[in-house]
């Protein structure tokens, strides 16, 4: 089946901001697993009701599983929207450890990530560097989770002065078995 082989997914919803942002997305991806390696290229088109409008994103994720609970991931992507200044890009390198669950159902995890983002309109420009640590654990059964995420961000628009933030959030998963 073509849809299953190439991972056609659709999404629509609301980003809870003030004012709320409505969105719709269609994504085509293909996941290749070979021994301890997972490679996933993807292509998506989307629409947001804010200044971004219509756009597209191309990405490639490569994971290496050192053992059934420990992984290293590289995620690179490029994005264009009606509201961007040229092409936006990012590269993130992360590592994580699964405390509860497995690689198909990560229930309780801890991880660290380094991110670089920029844009290209003429000459390439670095915009942001970020380092963070994330703790994710169940709040209710295996579909409602809390997230604790301290991070440090260095942005060019702030003369590379560090900005420290502490994020506490809620994550909901509505796919698979919620137990």
Short characterization:
With 179 residues, the chain is mainly β. The protein has one helix at 2-6; strands spanning 8-15, 21-29, 32-34, 37-48, 54-67, 70-81, 87-102, 105-121, 123-140, 144-155, 162-172.
Provide an overview of this structure.
The chain is an all-beta fold and 179 residues long. It has one helix and eleven strands, in the order αβββββββββββ. It has one helix at residues 2-6; strands at residues 8-15, 21-29, 32-34, 37-48, 54-67, 70-81, 87-102, 105-121, 123-140, 144-155, 162-172. Strands 1, 2, 3, 4, 5, 6, 7, 8, 9, 10 and 11 form an eleven-stranded antiparallel beta sheet that branches. A hairpin with a 2-residue loop joins strand 3 and strand 4 (37-48). The chain is globular. The mean pLDDT is 90.
Question: Keywords for this structure?
Answer:
179 residues, mainly beta, 11-stranded antiparallel β-sheet, 3% helix
List the helices and strands and how they pair.
Elements: H1 2-6, E1 8-15, E2 21-29, E3 32-34, E4 37-48, E5 54-67, E6 70-81, E7 87-102, E8 105-121, E9 123-140, E10 144-155, E11 162-172
Antiparallel strand pairs: 1-2, 2-4, 3-4, 4-5, 5-6, 6-7, 7-8, 8-9, 9-10, 10-11
């Amino acid at each position: 089946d073509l849809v299953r082989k190439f991972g056609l997914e659709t999404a629509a919803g609301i980003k809870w901001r003030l004012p709320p942002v409505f969105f719709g997305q269609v994504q085509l991806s293909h996941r290749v697993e070979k021994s301890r390696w997972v490679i996933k290229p993807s292509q998506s088109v989307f629409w947001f009701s804010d200044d971004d409008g219509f756009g597209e994103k191309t990405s490639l994720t490569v994971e290496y599983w050192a053992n059934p609970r420990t992984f290293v991931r590289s995620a690179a992507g490029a994005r264009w929207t009606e509201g961007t200044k040229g092409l936006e890009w990012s590269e993130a390198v992360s590592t994580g450890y699964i405390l509860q669950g497995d690689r198909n159902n990560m229930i309780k995890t801890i991880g660290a990530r380094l991110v670089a983002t920029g844009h290209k309109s003429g000459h390439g420009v670095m915009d942001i560097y970020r380092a963070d640590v994330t703790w994710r654990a169940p709040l209710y059964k295996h579909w409602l989770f809390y997230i604790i995420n301290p991070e440090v961000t260095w942005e060019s628009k702030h003369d590379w002065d560090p900005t420290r933030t502490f994020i506490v959030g809620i994550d909901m998963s509505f796919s698979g078995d919620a137990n």
